[in-house]
Protein 1
Amino acid sequence: MKVDRRDFLKLAGVGGAVFASGLYGCTTSSPKMAAQDDFMFVQLSDTHWGFQGPPNPDAKVTLPKAIQSVNALETQPDFIVFTGDLTHTTDDPHERRKRMEEFKAMIGELKVKDIRLIPGEHDASLDHGKAFQEIFGPTHYTFDHKGVHFIALDNVSDPKAFIGDEQLQWLADDLKKHSADTRIVVLAHRPLFDLAPNWDWATADGQKAIDLLMPFPHVTVFYGHIHQENHQMTGHISHHAAKSLIFPLPAPGSQPKRVPVAWDPAAPYRGLGFRNVRADAAASYPITEFPVTKA
Amino acid sequence: MAQSGERVIKVTARKFTYDPDEIVFKAGEAVVLELTSADVHMGFKCPDLGLRADIFPEKQTRIPLKVDQAGRYDFYCDVFCGDDHENMTGTIVVQA
């Protein structure tokens, strides 16, 4: 059923982005493309496949439900990104690979087949990204889509949360190939800035990456890791954290310990979801947040 | 005691705690933190005191320390070591 109602939250100064809560079947969740080169992509994050525990007793069905919901979007995105922690950490290399293969099989159910993945620390920190690379490919890479240059950064294969000098040089070399007016979207798992370092919500050398990006006026970062929506600026660069598909986490620094928000059986999947991002010529990236399932 | 006379405070890190997780000494007292891991490579970071060290199994990492200002200074593991890594925290308590 199509509806007209939607809720907007406009955050002043956040790169002009407009945020909306998406309603399934809502025409406004699938706006007509304003210009030929506008497009949409979907971001999902922190699926933690393999997790078991009280914070999400429905862990085995949350991702499949989200996949159904993405497939039910009125307008399918051009591509889909997963910003890390695809699987939940395990010390067992065999179990790690099993979880990754299962995850890979499940996302094969998505209608959209252009799917871009980056690891999270749960996927990559204990083996420096070895299993991820075997099963999914490079942990950092670039791609271009309709005039936007996407850069996927790896700030997790080093367990100390460094991007590392080699990857930073790769980033610098890549940026040299692009003019200053290039629209750039960065995909990362951890925040590149110090959001809450004592909760591991930071990248040790993230400022170096931000400094490399600063000469470009049109840069937006989409990341995961913190299991909640969060929007902040570093200079003119906007950073947008995504909700998870496993359990929410408390707001940065809101309590002494970074423990999952308790599961509420009266409101399952509260605080979980995915987002639709529209890329337009103005590089403003309107975001529409969706819950895991239709209400 | 360390050879130079400072009190040695032994700290053992293991998934996912520090033992002790509250390190107590007096303001102006010279101590040596002697850190080791009982299982895997871990980290010790106390930003407010400018401390940062890697901790390894079967090795001691020694940090000489003297803090003049009484207070509580949080520390945490900054090397991802598995599930619940993010809650591996402790406090240095400097008494007046």
Protein 2
Amino acid sequence: MGTFHDDKGELHGMTVVVDTTGPKVYIGRCDTETPDGIALLDVGEHVEGETTKDAYIEKANKFGVFAQHKKLFVPRAEIASVRKLGEL
Amino acid sequence: MPYDPELVAPMRQDMVTMGAQELTTETDVASFMEAKEGTALLFVNSVCGCAAGAARPGLRTALGNDHRPDRVATVFAGQDVDATAKLRSYFPDIPPSSPSAYLVRDGELVFFWPRHQMEGRDAPSVAFGFVTAFDEHCE
């Protein structure tokens, strides 16, 4: 199911989980994905600690996330994986 | 800034024709939520093409199921801003999401569909999700 913003990449409008190579994981609505990285909207951020990344993602899959960032850009070099939250 | 009313009119109408009560003010929402007996579905409508485009027809199909909510209502995120905020205030632990849907039984939330569970799906797939929950929670 596409959108009418083909120039923004196929994930535009989808809620995605952006795992990083470090302790942070982001969940937000993809605005644009480019070779440089991914721009997200209404982004929840989690730093692995008492709660694991997997536990945060599991809860997010049930209810969504409270946004801590209205907009956020994650550089490609920091990205370990990008997955659609609704498909996890 | 709320969306152009002309833009959202067909999306509103879509909900009305499937029998949903439109809640456009905080008072509307409070009155609807005051009646706690039985089951109620509250759909947060949205212009989002990735999710709402399939969510509305999916819900329409699901409401034809033998088991379905006693009452159905809708608010329009980004349009009926106060009504949407009022509805969300009843579920403070649930992050804002649009489109989304709350299924309430006897005043208690029993199921929630966030936007990401509808994104990229087709209407039959969304309908299946609603029907599964209706079969479990509705008479």
Protein 3
Amino acid sequence: MGRFLRRLRARLRYRNFDADLREELETHRALAESDARARGVSPEDARHEAARRVGNRTLARELSRAVWIAPWLESLWQDARFAVRSLWASPGFTLPALAVLVVTMGLTTGVFTTTESLFFRPWPVPQVDRVAVMVTKQPVTNGWFFETSLVAYRHLREHARTLDVAALTTEMLRLGGRPDAEPQPVRLVSGSYFDVLRIPVVAGRALLPSDDTPGAEAVAVVSHRVAEEQLGGPERALGAVLRVEDVAFTVVGVTAPGARDARLSEAPAAWVALHAKAVLSPGDEQVRRLFNDPGFWGVELVGRLAPGADRKSAEAEVKPLMAQFAAEHGVIPAEVSVTGTEWIYNWQGAGRARQIYSLLSAATILTLFLGCANVGNLQLARGVSRRSELEVRQSLGAGRGRLVRQLLVEGLVLATMSAVVSLILAWQVLPAVLGSFGWVRPDVLSVNGRTLVFVFGLALSVTMLSGALPALRVTRPGSGSRVVSAGAARLRASLLGAQVAIGVVLLVGAVLLARAVQHAGSSGLGFDLGQVAAIRPFVPRDAYAPAEREQLGRGILDAAREAGIGPVAGTLFPPFTAHIASYTVRLPGEPESANRRVVTHDVTSGYFETVGIPLVAGRLFSESSSHDDVVVNESMARSFWPDQSALGRVFFDGDSEKRVIGVVGDVRTELFYTQSPIYYRRAGPFQAVLARNDPATVARVLDIVRAVVPRASPEVDDLAPELRRQLDSSVLGAKVAAGVAVVALLLAAVGTLGAFSFVVSERRREIGVRLALGARTWNILHLLAARVSWPLVGGLFVGLLGAQAAGGVLGGYLYGLSPRDPVTYAIVLLVLVSAAVFATLIPARRALSVDPAVTLRAE
Amino acid sequence: MARTPEPPDLLRGTLDLLILRVLSREPAHGYGIAQRIRVFSSDVLQVGESSLYPALQRLLLNGDVEAEWGVSENNRRARYYSLTKAGRKRLATERVDFDQMVAAIRQVLETA
């Protein structure tokens, strides 16, 4: 060791050896020359003499360099060649180790590639490094949002000099004027948008600032795909009419094939001016607020940096501008950050996907550790059985450091092979597999230089993680006795315990997620979804004015009540069909900035009876209730007025004062991650009629709707499939988690099996002797079990503790299921016990079939 | 331009030994070491740069000597080598080994 350290120190101290040597040789030449002159040689001859030795000096440098470099590399190469030979010679170790490494490293690489592809790459627009995205944060919400208000955008647009700003919002709209068309993403953008993002247009023109003015002609730029599929090709599309919902737009431009202005979201089908929102939803209160309310966060902001400006200088300019804006308009000042498109998905609160990937990454890293522990045990076993070889090499003069290095190089060779396989999988197989789930577009996923660096970094870490301890252990001086040292046994037990613990954590997590999906789909809602049908009276928007629509809706409900078909109600959004509309409200006496987030539902009287939501206190709406009388759920009552009655309390939603007249039970009518405060207010116009879900009732309601609203084309929404569709991503998440957990379980089982087999083969002779002396089956099993039981039990214990912690982390994904769900733990224990029995049974059978005579003869 | 014949390369281990011995008196730079070996051997042993410097690098790498930049007699920057503790130990053992070796060789030459 001392020698190794000395050499290491020398390497550090003389790392500039080549430059030093060159100067040194120059000194040598000069000294030789002056000596020669002193001896009386003519200066001319002295120089010649010196020059003659130039070749010598080059040789000196080359040989010296070899001193520093060669032994290192050469012996490494030797080690690698030897490693390949020795791995080849022992497939019993190489194949399982390789399999474990390929599975775990492949999984890790896959997750890395997906995460990196999804979250760390810029948008595919020209000169994207000059594109900036602005995100905002309000002091109270404590999360970053992309949205800001359109009024704030106008302020920035007018005053910002460091960047050219554009605003956008995206809506899912039906193209082609057919009510049954699938809604497609349409971007509503400011006139500056195409200048800022420079999306290539192949026919016609882009949208211009003049298109985004009140009263401008309704024009649209369509994607190449829409032009091909719906308008007869890019050339014929120009000047054609494209109906978006009920509004006719003239197509003025077609973007390049595959052009997109964001990486992950579906490519927009069309781009129209923001002002078109006024014609798309005439008379809508939200639209009025979008254009006029400085505190209504309705648009996202992107910008292109001016020449000479960078994100920092842009942020330095934008921050005071936004503060000034807030002061002028009396709105809550929002913190602004200017960032690049590659980071847009990384902002806190930027969506659930990122959290899901963090969880997946955590699970993958755990699996990787499990794999390392597994391979570590294999290496330990191999090292122990290779002891005689190691001893021979040691007695031939190999130092311990040299042997450790040899063992580590073997590990590195294995890990590198797995790294190459993982890379090929991530490159060729991953996009196809994930694409076939319809989960991400295959072209989003690709490997790049970062993947390469990651994979080989991973190989190095895996080598050290799985190999360092076993290598140190088996080369430990004095451990050369035939009986396996207690240290090696301890290390093996710890590695086994770690595998079991990690397996338990992952298994509990996966079962919890699967149970949560089941829970969310049925028992966790608080009401029986199957009992409710939603009938949407599809009324063409341009057929009736809002006031008329409200009148007609009331007429439908009145007629239904008269017909006596049980409880009916109207709602703006049927359960599980709305994006969560979340608003900020405040209590009396609180400042404007005390934004408390709540969810609102617009419902008519009868809603609670129809859905089956219990009244807890106070009363429900009646037909004559004021629009400012509201009903809140228990969560809201608890969090707004803790330990007090909520009845009669008031709060402010914007300028209107709301009074609580009743409290109802908590139910889930949207997929909240945690139960949130909800207040119900009496709806004006509504979009759906809710009624009992039986064929007769539904048929009656349909008749009534047709009778009251002649131009309606009512449809029945089955809500249960809607919920299932919304749960799809969670189902997929649970499946992925289950996949990871199965891998983990298999690895842990195989690890247990391996460790147990090893104990058996190690004690083969002893078992033979004991059997010969008349030991019973039970004694032998007891003897063997004693060696593996404590790591199994210890691992289980640690794993259960870890699972408790993991359950807390998962809390937000469980749709209200307790992280300590007893059914989950029961399932996990059952699976583990079966796995343990399976993993110990096979080697145990082998142990009992030991023939004492054969074993003893072999000695 | 007369060609001065290069003496045959010294045995590798022997050169290390000679360098260590020279440095055991006082630190010296590369040229100085070569000069001293030449002078002490009465001009018999001439060490060329291509053997001297690789040998010095080897000794550096093994931690037998250490190097320090200083100023030479003609005011140039020169690297002075000195023995380390490990080098001193190595000199002692190799010297014994060498003496034994020489004695053995002589014995063979005289008796055979």
